[in-house]
Amino acid sequence: MDAIPLFSNYPITATMADRGRLVSFSQDWLGVMVTASAVDSASAVFKVQWSNDGTTWFDPATPDTVGTLTAPGTVVGRFTVKAIYWRLATALTGSSITCTASALC
Length: 105
Prior knowledge:
The chain has no helices and seven strands. By secondary structure, it is mainly β. It is globular and about 40 Å long.
């Protein structure tokens, strides 16, 4: 399995979601890692959202939360695949956070 880079040293200044990624039907789990290199008075909650069509996104009943970053550091999550597309979304509170993210699927 190869790591898929999502973004590198990307400054997040508002709530956002990256583009959807196709998950192979042969995979039954998805791993996501987010590393913050700089945090400016912020808190960011990262989660995986799912879609069957790449347009309409949903959170599972129990959200697939990767983790929360309030200081430089790394959060990692592993999730059961729930649809053919996924995306990494974040809810930001505060100023900004600079992150690098990758996925293993």
